[in-house]
Specification:
Largest sheet: 9 strands, mixed
Number of strands: 19
Oligomer: single chain
Strand order of the largest sheet: 11-14-17-16-15-18-10-1-19
Distance between the termini: 34 Å
Radius of gyration: 24 Å
Order of helices and strands: EHEHHEHEHEHEHEHEHEEEEEEEEEEHHE
């Protein structure tokens, strides 16, 4: 095999992620069947966990999701602008938010503070009330009303409901997923808050506490609605259970092409700092993806990719735009397809494999891909 130089214009799909719309739809339908009669909110924040918010939203709704969840109002407005009319909840807001656009476009807002409640009241009218889900902190320690705030804010919410300027759609919190005992303690706190709210004369509406992990592992946390995030995209939230064991199928495959293939002698240093030297005469392949594209630098000398039907290690440091794989005696060619991660059922490395190699979680692997990576929906 002769040393072959790169030819960027001759090689299609140098950086491409393929999103399987059907997999998202089927994952949502599968979880919906497991958690019924609880409904499903598909979480499509962070551009649909890197899968494309609009693609994910449409597929999830086809799969039976009753609602969509996003982090902020801007993400919700983008869905509305694309024609998505399903109920959408946004729960992360600035220090002094304005909810006028949310009210105008029928976007529900998660209210975590007294000030946010006041801003919702200001934005709502009796003809078009603000749609509110009260967020309480049951132990995660992030946003949400602390226990001492429950009664006074619930009372204020009751006054706002009576004024007709807000409509209380739901009460929610978020599990820590630390362990079953901790999550059950959070469930108990949630039910306590619910009873307090009812005692003050308000109907909590839709009660939601569990995301994918809680919904699948602790059925009692499902309540009226589960927020399906990572599970919608076919990935497992658990370290000890695979997506296949949960009946889920990964919806993302990241692929590229070999940009260069060359023969090198034993002892050749590879990439910056020579953190890897070849142990024998071997073939090296160059892949045109790097940390600017969301490839974790931490997979240097730890990650693997599939070339053809063989898996090969990433060697040397991942650079900004490229990384190197040791092909051994594999008769690879410039232009051969490289799969970085995809579906284990096809023999491909997975986002979980990459997460272990990078000492992180599969959520980060799929959400960090950069703008140079072309998105294709299959």
């Amino acid at each position: 095999m002769a040393d072959q130089a790169s030819g960027a214009t001759e090689l299609p799909a140098l950086r491409r992620v393929i999103i399987d719309h059907t997999a998202i739809r089927e994952n949502v339908a599968h979880v919906a069947s497991l958690v019924a009669p609880a409904a499903v909110m598909a979480v499509v924040k962070a551009d649909g966990y890197g899968h494309g918010a609009l693609t994910a939203a449409r597929a999830a709704l086809e799969g039976g999701a009753a609602r969509l969840g996003v982090a902020d109002v801007d993400e919700a407005l983008a869905l509305r602008a694309a024609g998505i009319q399903a109920p959408v909840l946004a729960w992360l807001h600035g220090h002094d938010p304005s909810f006028g656009e949310a009210v105008e476009h029928g976007i529900s807002v998660g209210v975590s503070t007294r000030l946010q409640l006041e801003r919702a009241v200001e934005a709502g009218t009796t003809s078009r009330p603000a749609l509110v889900h009260l967020k309480i902190d049951t132990g995660l320690g992030r946003n949400g009303l602390q226990r001492a705030e429950w009664e006074p804010v619930f009372e204020a919410a009751g006054d706002a409901i009576a004024s007709g300027r807000i409509r209380l759609e739901g009460l929610f919190s978020h599990l820590s997923n630390a362990d079953d005992e901790e999550d059950r303690a959070q469930l108990a706190a949630f039910l306590e808050a619910e009873q307090l709210l009812r005692s003050l004369g308000a109907d909590p509406g839709i009660r939601h506490l569990a995301s994918t992990a809680g919904a699948l592992r602790l059925p009692e946390t499902r309540l009226d609605l589960v927020r399906l995030g990572i599970g919608a995209y076919g990935l497992s939230p658990f370290d000890d259970v695979t997506s296949a064991e949960l009946g889920l199928r990964p919806a993302m495959r990241l692929e590229s092409r070999l940009f260069s293939v060359k023969r090198v002698a034993a002892g050749t240093g590879v990439s910056y700092g020579y953190t890897y030297r070849t142990e024998r005469d071997t073939w090296l392949g160059l892949v045109p993806l790097g940390y600017a594209d969301g490839i974790p630098r931490h997979v240097s000398n730890t990650g693997s990719v599939q070339v053809g039907d063989q898996v090969h290690p990433i060697v040397g440091r991942v650079a900004m735009d490229q990384f190197v794989v040791d092909l051994g005696e594999h008769e690879a060619q410039v232009g051969d397809r490289v799969v970085l991660f995809g579906d284990a059922a096809r023999g491909e490395p997975t986002a979980d494999d990459w997460a272990r190699a990078a000492s992180t979680i599969n959520y980060e692997i799929v959400t960090r891909l950069g703008r140079r990576v072309k998105r294709v929906t299959a």
